[in-house]
Write a structure and sequence with these properties.
Radius of gyration: 44 Å
Strand order of the largest sheet: 11-14-12-13
Helix content: 10-25%
CATH class of the largest domain: Alpha Beta
Distance between the termini: 116 Å
Strand content: 15-25%
Largest sheet: 4 strands, mixed
Shape: elongated
Order of helices and strands: HHEEEEEEEEEEEHEHEE
Length: about 250
């Protein structure tokens, strides 16, 4: 009997078992954590794995499928948040929670920093200077709707501008030449005499006559456009040759 065999026979049974079991296990197989320690792993179901539970993972990581991975939303100095999100206490969150987290010319709008409007809510001032209105966060110059107190009337089946109507148009022209004049639509109307197509054409001629008159008085053509309703929108219904239906009205646009 060799010296080696005599030594084996002299060892306690438990030591022999441990020696034999360790010598027969090869990575990634294992019977306990010691078999995986050299790789920094643990034994899970007789196989070496990165983790068994979260205790084997680092800060901000969790064990999933025996692999350590960073949990969603975790952040630190070397692991920044995506996009414009901000890291607070190692958790990614909105860019801002209040106006104090935004720049001097910004406010916190539902978690994102946005440029302050010129006026209104979240602006440095709620209202605009005199002559301006706050519309959608911007100061917009107030526009003046220029129109005569009464429509411009015409004789039956005519579209020339009557002498009695010219003072109305001269007053409107002065308003339209102002800096804040709003655009206007010149709407031509007729009475019920004649067929539909004829009255539509007559209404357009009446609107065009007013357009030409105002332009000759120095009104910018870009402020005006024309439309004809013919007999479809009478001022007085079922009236035949009603003088008040033969007219041009100013519509703001």
């Amino acid at each position: 009997m060799s010296t080696f065999h005599r030594l084996l026979l002299s060892l306690p049974f438990g030591v022999l078992f441990l020696f034999s079991s360790t010598a027969c296990v090869e990575y990634p197989n294992c019977k306990n954590d010691e078999h995986c320690a050299e790789k920094g792993e643990v034994c899970v179901a007789n196989l070496c794995k990165k983790c068994r539970d979260n205790s084997q993972c680092g800060e901000g990581q969790e064990c999933s499928g025996n692999v350590c991975s960073y949990r969603i939303g975790y952040c630190n100095d070397s692991r920044p948040c995506p996009g414009s999100q901000k890291c607070r206490s190692n958790e990614c969150g909105p860019e801002c929670l209040g106006n104090e987290e935004c720049g001097s010319n910004q406010f916190c709008d539902e978690g994102s920093c946005a440029v302050k409007p010129e006026c209104g809510v979240n602006a440095d001032r709620e209202s605009c200077d005199e002559g301006y209105d706050c519309q959608g966060g911007r100061c917009v110059r107030q526009m003046v709707n220029c129109s005569p107190s009464d429509p411009i009337y015409f004789d039956f089946d005519r579209y020339n501008v009557k002498r009695t109507e010219k003072p109305k148009l001269e007053e409107v022209a002065e308003c339209l030449r102002g800096a804040n004049a709003a655009r206007a639509t010149l709407a031509g109307h007729t009475d019920e005499e004649g067929d539909t197509s004829y009255n539509l054409a007559l209404g357009e001629r009446r609107a065009s006559a007013i357009y030409d008159f105002l332009v000759r008085l120095g009104v910018k053509s870009s402020l005006l456009n024309t439309i004809s309703y013919g007999e479809d929108r009478p001022a007085v219904d079922r009236s035949g040759r009603q003088p008040k239906n033969r007219r041009v009205e100013f519509e703001a646009r």
